[in-house]
Amino acid sequence: MTSFILNERLISTGERPGLTVLEFVRDVSCLSGTKEACREGECGACTVLVGSPQPDGSVAYRACASCLLPLGDVEGCHVVTVEGLAGAALTLVQKLIVEHSASQCGFCTPGIVLSLTGFCLGAKKISFEGAVDALDGNICRCTGYVSIRNAARALCASLAKMDLPPAKRLAELVNSGVVPGYFKEIPARLSQFKAEPAGTGSDAVLVAGGTDLFVQKPEQLLEGELCFLSKRRDLDYVKLDGEFLRVGGAVTIEDFRQSPPVRQYFPALEKDFLLHSSAILRNKATLAGNVVNASPIGDATIILLALDARLVISGNGARREVPLSKFYLGYKKTDLACGELVSEIVIPLLPKGARYHFEKVSNRTTLDIAAVNSALRVTTAPDGTVTDLRISAGGVAAVPVLLALESFKGRKLDAPAVEALAKAAEAEARPIDDIRGSAAYKKLLLGRLVGAHFAAAAGEAV
Ligand SMILES: Cc1cc2nc3c(=O)[nH]c(=O)nc-3n(C[C@H](O)[C@H](O)[C@H](O)COP(=O)(O)OP(=O)(O)OC[C@H]3O[C@@H](n4cnc5c(N)ncnc54)[C@H](O)[C@@H]3O)c2cc1C
Ligand code: FES
Ligand code: FES
């Protein structure tokens, strides 16, 4: 049985844990406000809110794509569809959408309403820029984004005086008409649920965010046994430990991006990770899932490779550490045995004199996989001599690559040296022709990205 609260209603259902929440709300619960379009996380029409109980008794709400969200994952949570916002009057977000003519055919509108409501509930700070970022996964094909943004701007202006942290904001959001009054009872109602184990069977498929799995094989997952990493609270942390950041295997990309240690020690990552998919996916997709997924162009993987990250791998009664640079054995093949999982990612802080930079080229700025991506970590002595150089590259081989550029250590990276470095990177690349570009184009692109690292590095120093 899977138990959760759907809007105001307690649900206990024997439907399979691999059924998507989208199918459950539309086909089983007959709530048709949640729209179905791409079923691949690309459009945001299916956005719902998922509220998860927190150790401090509050409920943390996140907007998620319900087409990639398995029912088993919302066990013990509060799921909100647009019907769950309906009361005697429109909510503040709905009212502003009407006032700013931000809806025409209305197909995308429930998703937009839920993304903006999720922003009000969960954003650390209410700002127009943050509201726009929260909408980066919601595509509208007829209204035009200017009026949607105008509604978002008016929303932020209405809530400008609210400076409470998300965990303490609920009463004020009820008073402002952002969410209906019954939300106030949800924390107490969820606290009655018994915590369920993450899943047990050794053959169970490990589901982290599910944002790759539920695109690749939804039918297989409907039948199989699943183990949900989101239930492993012990793996949900980002903490500083001496000269390292330790990131639990269940941490989502959005929580990582916004965590205080990342903001303090790697401020550039907050912006770089905005280029990963969209808010409704980043709210579920995990850093470890991106690494294990083993895509040759995974954005987190490419960044972590340059930063010299290590993986802590646990399972089968043992625990071992593997440098990320040694983890990939071939196309989609990793050094992970059956029964093992990535329980932690360890990221060294930037050494003194080090700079970091990330570049990604894709057809669209957001919501698109890279054609080629690359990250740089370079350390120089006070006289400008390179003491350490790590440049990673995605989309140029069967696996994410760390380029072999040893010969540039001990040199000063003046313009001719950077040009030689770009040529050396191009020579090492072994891309293939595919839908994202020809091999020749990708080779050239990598050379340009290496140049861009150094052109931008002065302004990006961290
Ligand atoms: C619309 C869309 C846009 C996307 N855009 C981007 C993008 O811009 N950049 C990008 O890099 N990716 C992108 N992706 C791909 C995907 O979202 C990411 O790779 C994501 O980080 C995967 O994480 P997840 O937690 O959802 O993995 P899941 O789908 O849950 O799992 C992926 C695989 O890893 C395994 N796994 C997960 N966690 C662990 C663990 N801790 N230990 C062992 N095995 C584990 C799972 O069993 C599964 O085999 C996009 C996907 C979609 C659908
Ligand atoms: S239906 Fe398009 S994101 Fe889910
Ligand atoms: S209002 Fe028609 S798709 Fe947005």
Write up this protein.
By secondary structure, the chain is α+β, with helices and mostly antiparallel strands. The chain has 2 domains: 190 residues, Ubiquitin-like (UB roll) (Roll), CATH 3.10.20; 228 residues, Uridine Diphospho-n-acetylenolpyruvylglucosamine Reductase, domain 3 (2-Layer Sandwich). Helices cover 31% and strands 21% of the residues. A 5-stranded mixed β-sheet has the order 2-1-5-3-4. A 5-stranded antiparallel β-sheet has the order 8-9-14-10-11. A hairpin with a 2-residue loop joins strand 8 and strand 9. Helix 16 packs antiparallel against helix 17. The mean pLDDT is 94. Flavin-adenine dinucleotide binds next to strand 6, helix 8, helix 14, helix 15 and strand 14.
Strand content: 15-25%
Category by helix and strand content: alpha+beta
Shape: globular
Bound molecules: flavin-adenine dinucleotide, FE2/S2 (inorganic) cluster
Major sheet size, sense and barrel closure: 5 strands, mixed
Q: Unreliable stretches, pLDDT < 50, 5 or more residues?
A: none
Number of helices: 17
Cα(first) to Cα(last) distance is: 49 Å
How many beta strands in the DSSP annotation? 18
Radius of gyration, taken over Cα atoms and rounded to an integer in Å = 23 Å
| CATH topology-level fold name of the largest domain | Uridine Diphospho-n-acetylenolpyruvylglucosamine Reductase, domain 3
Strand order of the largest sheet: 2-1-5-3-4
Give the tally of structural domains: 2
Helix content: 25-40%
Mean pLDDT equals: 94
The CATH top-level class label of the largest domain: Alpha Beta
